[in-house]
Structure formats: C-alpha cells, structure tokens
Amino acid sequence: MTRYIVKRLLLMIPTLLSVAVIIFFLMRIVPGDIVELRFAGESAYAQKENLDKERARLGLDKPIWTQFVTWMGGLLRLDFGTSMWTGAPISEEIRLRFALSLQLAIMATIVAILLAIPLGVIAALRQDTWVDYAVRIMSIAGLATPSFWLGIVFILGLLIIFKWLPPMVYTPFWVNPVQNLAQLIWPALAVGYRYSAVATRMTRSAMLEVLREDYIRTARAKGLWEKLILSRHALKNAMLPVLTVIALEFAFLIGGLVVTEQVFNLNGLGLLFVEAIGHRDYTLTQALVMLVAFVFIFVNFLVDLAYAWLDPRIRFR
Amino acid sequence: MAVGRPVEAVAEIPEVAGRRRWLAVVSEFCRKRPLGAVGAAVVLINVVVGLGANVIAPYDPVATDYGAMLAPPSASHWLGTDAFGRDVLSRIIYGSRTAMLVGFACAFLGATVGAVIGVASAYFAGKVDLILQRVMDIFLAFPLIILALAVVSILGTGIGNVIIAIAIPMIPRAALVTRSSALAIREMPYVDAARAAGFRHRRIILRHMLPNVMAPYLIMLTAYLGQAILAEASLTFLGLGVSEPTPAWGLMLRGAAVQFAETAPWMAIFPGLAISLAVFAFNLFGDSLRDALDPRLRAQ
User: Fold this and answer.
1) Higher model confidence: residue B190 or residue B3?
2) Closest residue of B to A295, CA-based?
3) Mean pLDDT, chain B, integer
4) Cα radius of gyration rounded to whole Å, chain A
5) Rounded to the nearest 5°, which phi and psi values hold at A89?
6) Is the dihedral of CA A79, A84, A87, A88 positive or negative?
7) Which of A35, A70, A93, B295 lies at 20 to 30 Å from B16 by C-alpha?
8) pLDDT score at A118
9) CB atoms < 10 A from the CB of A205, how many?
10) Residue B92: in which H helix or E strand, if any?
C-alpha cells in the first residue's frame, strides 16, 4: 500500500512538470506581452526605452531558458513569485480567492449530493415508471441548462417575487456566516443542480446493477428489512462510481466556474484566471494553472485511494 | 451500352434495400425510444430554423428600432425587443444558425481527430501508445473552459477560432474513449489479414479500424454537440467567443440583458431557454442513441 502511494505520488511529478512546460511556453506564444498592454493605455507613443526598462524590471529581457529555470526554482520552493500586473505576492492574491472558490465548490457539491443520491435511488427502485422518466428528464435538463443562465434566473426570481437581492459583496464565512451564506447559496444551487445530473444517473445505474447481485437476493431471502437492505447492502456498494464522478466534478469546480462567478459578481479563481490571461500576467497565470492542475491530479489520486479503501477486492500493484 | 444496362439493374437492388433498412431503423428508433425521437425532432427543427433563418425571421436581427426599445412581448414582437429595439425572436432564430454551426463543427472536429488519435494509439501500441496517452493525460488535467480560454487568447475571437478553441479540449476525451474500443478491434483477424496483405498503417487505421469504432464515435459526437453549444454560449457570455454583430445566444445574455433584467426579463429569459432547449434535445437524442448502440446497456 505504502509503495503504491509513493509510486502514485512520484508519477504526479512528470505530469505536473509537463503542465508547467506547456503553460510556460503557451503564455509566451500568446501575442502581446504585459508591458505592451500596460503602456498601450497611457499613450500612443510608448518609448521603446521605457518598454525595455519595464521588461528588464520584470526579468523578461533574459533568455527564455533562464526565465524558465528561475520560475521552476521558485516552484520547487513553493514560491510562486509576485504578480507581474499588481506586484503583489501571488500567494496573497490567490489565498482569498481560493477560499471563496473552495467554499463555493464544497457547497455546490453538497447540493449535488443531496439531489443526486435520493433521486438516483428512487429512479432505480422505480425503474421504467414515470418517476424514473421524470428523474431522467430532470437530470438531462440539468446538463442542458447553462448554470450562469440559471443564476440569472434565480437573481431575477428573487428580485421580482421577493423584491430582494442577494448581497453582491463577498463576506468571508468567519466574519459573517449569515451574510456569506445568503450570497453563496444561489450560485451553489445553480451549479449544484447542474452537477447533480451526472451523479444522479450514475447512482441510478450503479443501484440497478447492485440490486441484481446475489448478496441482495440472499439478504432478501433471509427476510431482512427492505430499508436495511437498501442502506447497508445496496447503497454502500453502489457508491463507488458515484464517488468518482462527484470527486472529479469537485476538482473541476475549483477553477472552472468562470462564468457563474461573473454572473454573481464573485471574485473567485475563475475570474482571476480570465483577468490574468487578459493582462498577460505570466507569473499569475502560470501559478493558477499549476494550482488547478495539481488539485485535479491530486483529487484523482485520492479517488483511487478511496476506491481501494472502500472495496477491499481492489489490490494495488 | 448493352453492357451498361444489367449493371445498373443490379446496382439498384442494394440501394432500395438500403433505403428500406434505413426507414426501418428510424421507425424502430422512434417506437422504442420516444424521448430520443422527440430530441431528434427538436434538433431537426433547430437545424432547419438555423439554415432558413433569413426566410423565417420576421425582422432583420441587427436592425435597430429606437421607437421600440425594451418593448415587452406583443403581436408585432412575439418575444419583445432588446435595449436597441432589435427583435428578440429574430435574434434567437439567427442565433440558432451560429449555435448549430459551432455545435456541429466542434463536435465533428473534436470527435474525429480524437477518434483517429485513439485508434492510432491502440494500433501502434507500445511506446507510441504510452507517449500519446501521457500527452492526453496532460491535456485532461486542464479544465475544458480554461483550455478554451487560453486558445481564444492566442488565436483571437471570431467563430472559426471559437470552434478550434472548443474542439481542442474535446480531442483527448474522445481519444480516450475510442482507444479502449480500438484495443479490442486491434486483435481481430481482419486487422491481421490487412497487415498480411501489406496495407500501409494509414489505410489499416482509416479504412479497417476506424469504421469499427463507429458506436463510441457516434456517442461522443452527439454528446459533444450539446457541450459545444454550451461552451460557445459560456465563452461568448464572457466576451471571448462570437462577437457583435453576429447574433448568438450567449451574446444576447451579455450586458444589457442582465442590466435591464428587472424591467425587461424577456431579454434574459428567452435566449437562455433557446440554449437549454437545444442542448436538452441533443442530449435526449444522444442518450437514446447510446442506449441503442451500446451492447453492454442493451443486455440489461
């Protein structure tokens, strides 16, 4: 087991390294650099001298390999450097936004779980009845509705029916929990509904499969309560694929909610990413991509571990 | 001439049989999977509306009418007008053209390139397979929307670039799925036979293996259609996709639609409904198609 964990952790290194190489050179292929963008606003005739001076200050005049080695050296020490656009340390820029994105992702995942598991189980138990069809239509509709539009509709509904708008300024949870939840519950509902769709269908098909197993028949034959069969025997065994789907979606939610953040005026990682790319802020974009890729790979790793822990039949090589 | 006749007569038989078989397949699909048939019908309507937008739309989608700004739905403007007095219904109809174009182009590009890479990866096996798989893994680690954002900022906005930006992140996912099907096909005797006959790799991959991964390919294709439309709407909404004056659903939800949401909710509601309905129809159809094509699910 320990050997497997170490091996998996080591295998993360080449993947992360490749992500680093790709994003580093991708950013430098993108036309226009931060210096040009910054001076473009000031006057039509930016002096070449000034541009060069600024480039030298940011270290952009050095050969590209030197820049790469410097950046990698920083990464190894977990030092992301400073944002080229604002000059603030990147760890500080990211910290608050990461907290916001993480909270939203957790809340949306909770909404998705609360919707998906009961609906999926009911659909499986009532297979091919109108309940099953209704759940199926609901989940396909969830996949089809853009969550940013659902967000707009929520805001609109609250405004027209209750004459109330959710707070538009972010308050951290530890400062004012009520204010914080009043703002974040709406995007969490919009996003959670969308992401419950895949999990609902996974729950349904996994339950259908498990309910056909011999051990369920045995449990029924020995006269066990139906409730107990469902909760202890069926649901527990059907949760494996559902867990995978939910975990991978969670990893995606951390950095992928760009548009929803825009609608709800939330300064999360997604919007920061768009800003960073827009400004050609090399250091900040690179740091964000590394962070999102790391979360994704790490969650993948945790899912594999959880699999083995939940299903003793899976052995590691 | 005399030789030509019998050949024609012979050639006619399989064609008729082929047409009948098609009709039979379609009618069986409709009977067994009514939800899928409804989805297919809505998709068809969307395509027809998109193609015939200039005939169907009651107004010019970009014509402004300052006399009728933010007009609520009425007999002359069925779905109301926007902040520039442009007819919302006409813009939705023209938007369908953009959405269908982007949807079909992205899905076709993404699924096809992915399938070719996936099949090639399975066919060559060994080191090529390993390298291709690692490259795909790396691309999978980037979320779809972020990869698309990066591509758009390199290539710039505009429909063509948006199509590329959305199709690229789809490739590794399609490659992954087709590779697993192609691994089994690789071991088939007819592939060995083709190799023994001395065909080139390209011919074996494209002519012998690719047609046999049609089921997963079609499943990916239909799944991607809806995703592509959603991705285009999201990118456009962020200002990184299709830009004015091209009518697009995501564009209609931008700016003024949110700003005037309270007084003119039709501006925000109808384009969103159009997106949801189109993607819903594609998903419904794709879902039923998957049930029909996937033998593993059919057995249940």
Assistant:
1) B190
2) B141
3) 80
4) 24
5) -60, 135
6) negative
7) B295
8) 92
9) 18
10) helix B88-124
Cβ(B268)–Cβ(B256) below 8 Å: no
For an interface test with B, give the residue of A18, A212, A259, A272 to mutate (most B CBs within 10 A). Answer: A259
Chain centre distance of CA B57 = 23
d(Cα A127, Cα A116) in Å, to the nearest integer?
16
Retrieve residue B272's tokens. Answer: 């969103």
> What ipTM was assigned to the predicted interfaces of this complex?
0.77
Percentage of residues of chain B with pLDDT beyond 90: 9
Residues in chain B: 300
**Token pair of B116, please?**
């070719």
Instruction: Please state, in angstroms and as integers, the Cα–Cα distance from residue B44 to each residue in B50, B110, B227, following that order.
Output: 10, 21, 17
Of B35, B137, B234, the CB nearest to A259: B234
| Mean pLDDT of all residues in B109-137 | 87
Cβ–Cβ < 8 Å for A254, A295:
yes
Judge whether B284 and B291 are in contact, CB under 8 Å: no
**What gap in Å lies between CA A160 and CA A21, rounded to an integer?**
50
Confidence at residue A308, expressed as pLDDT on a 0 to 100 scale: 73
How much is the pLDDT for A198?
A: 84
CB contact (8 A) between residue B238 and residue A262: yes
Chain B CB contacts of A273 under 8 Å are 146, 149
- Between CA B26 and CA B20 the distance in angstroms is 10
**What single-letter DSSP state applies at residue A82?**
B
Q: Which residues of B61-90 are buried (b: 16+ CB within 10 A; e: fewer)?
A: beeeeeebebbeeeeebebbbbeebbbbbb
Give the span between the Cα atoms of A210 and A140, in whole angstroms.
Answer: 23
Q: List residues bridging with B81 in a β-sheet.
A: B87
* B171 contacts B177 by C-beta, under 8 angstroms: no
Q: Pick from B168, B187, B179: which is nearest to B129 by CA?
A: B179
Question: b/e for B24-35, b at 16 or more Cβ within 10 A?
Answer: eeeeebeeebeb
Torsion of CA A128, A130, A136, A140, to 10 degrees: 140
pLDDT at B78 over 90: no
Q: Cα angle at B248 between B245 and B249, to 5 degrees?
A: 140
Check if the beta carbon of residue B265 is closer than 8 Å to that of residue B80. Answer: no
